[in-house]
Amino acid sequence: MRALLAKLPSLKRPTLPRPDWSTVVLGLGTVSLVVVLLFLLGVPGYRHLKGRAQLAAVRGNAATVQLAAETYAASHQGEYPTDPLDLIPLLPGDRAPLNPFTGKPVQFRGEPGGLTYRSPTNGGDYVIQAFGKQTGRQTPLLMTLKGTADRRGGKSS
Questions:
Q1: Does residue 153 come out as left (phi exceeding 0), alpha (psi in the -120 to 50 range) or beta?
Q2: Among 7, 66, 113, 157, which residue's CB has the most CB atoms within a 10 Å radius?
Q3: Sheet of 155-156, strands arranged across
Q4: What is this structure's pTM?
């Protein structure tokens, strides 16, 4: 066995040459340039996606409040609440949804990222409005959800 091992060529561990200082500086400069470019190109895309996600959260909050209003009407002989605070026990976690722009509960005042709820006919219908991010002095209306009690026994929305 020793004779067989002696005939095998010896395997040496390869060694890499040590780079000189200019190669290291050039490599680090290239890496930092790539990182800066990725950052500069990625930030606007991230902000755009974050804004779209926040607007989607506002629309989702409006749909959640609408579901709470319909649930309220189902247990109150078809009458919708006149006060948005009556919906709080029917919302997830027994609290108002969070405003995606502030992270605080919605105040039902129509602020950016907020909602409004009203019943123009005092319980016979409802109007929910969702507002987007403020641009200048205006807060844009994203969507309006409406529901009306059908006085003939059914409901339509």
A1: left
A2: 113
A3: 115-118, 125-131, 141-149, 155-156
A4: 0.71
